[in-house]
Amino acid sequence: MATGKARRTFTVPTMRLAFTPFVQLSYSANMLERWLYISTSRLQAAQVDDQVRDIVNISISRNRSLGVTGALLFTGQRFSQYLEGSPVAIAELKESILRDSCHEDVRTIASGPYDVRRFLTWSLAYAGPSRFVASKVEEALKDAISGNRDNSESLAEMLAGFAVEGHG
C-alpha cells in the first residue's frame, strides 16, 4: 500500500433511489479524486422534471460504468453535484458537464485528491427535486460561491446527509 500500487477490490451496493445489484469497484487508496461544483440551470421550466429525470437516468449508468460515485442536488434554479472516482473518470465527466447546455456559470467549489468516498453506495444519489430544502441549499450555494472553503465542506456534507437520509 505504501507504493500506491497495491489494489484492493471492494463489492458495494449501488443506489438508484432503491438498491440495485452489487457491482465491483476497484481502486487504489491514492487514486481517488473529487469534484464539487455548482451551476445555474438552463432547463426549461415547463419540462424540468422530465429533463432532470433523464439526466439522472443517464448519469447513473455512466457513473457506474466509470466507477464514479456521488450526489446531485437540483433546487429548481441551480445544480450542485459531488463526484468522486479515478482522476481520469472525473476529468471525463467534468469535461462533459462543462460542455453540457443544461448548465451555465459552472463553478468549481472543491476538487482534487481525496482520501475516502463519501457516497460509497451511490452511483448517483438523487431523490428528486426538494422544494422544502431549496432555500437552505441556495444559502449554502451562495456561501460556497463566495469562496469560503469551510462552506464548500458544509455543502458536501449536506449532499452526503441527503444521500444517507435517502437510504431509509
Secondary structure layout:
Blueprint: E1 8-15, E2 19-27, E3 33-41, H1 48-66, E4 69-74, E5 78-85, H2 87-99, E6 103-113, H3 134-145, H4 149-167
Antiparallel strand pairs: 1-2, 3-5, 3-6, 4-5
Helix pairs in contact: 3-4
Please describe what this structure looks like.
By secondary structure, the protein is of the alpha+beta class. The protein has one domain (31-167): Alpha-Beta Plaits, CATH 3.30.70.100. It contains four helices and six strands, in the order βββαββαβαα. The strands form two sheets. The protein has a four-stranded antiparallel beta sheet, with helices on both faces. Strands 1-2 form a two-stranded antiparallel sheet. A hairpin with a 3-residue loop joins strand 1 and strand 2. Helix 3 runs antiparallel to helix 4 (149-167). Residues 1-29 have low confidence and may be disordered.
Tally of alpha and pi helices: 4
* Total domain units: 1
Computed over alpha carbons, the radius of gyration is 15 Å
- Tertiary shape: globular
Unreliable residue stretches: 1-29
Instruction: Determine and state the CATH class.
Output: Alpha Beta
Indicate the mean pLDDT: 76
Strand order of the largest sheet: 4-5-3-6
C-alpha termini separation: 35 Å
Q: What is the CATH third-level topology name?
A: Alpha-Beta Plaits
Strand content: 25-35%
Output the helix-strand order: EEEHEEHEHH
CATH architecture classification? 2-Layer Sandwich
By helix and strand content, what is the structural category?
alpha+beta
Percent helix, as a range, is: 25-40%
Major sheet, described briefly? 4 strands, antiparallel
What's the total number of strands?
Answer: 6
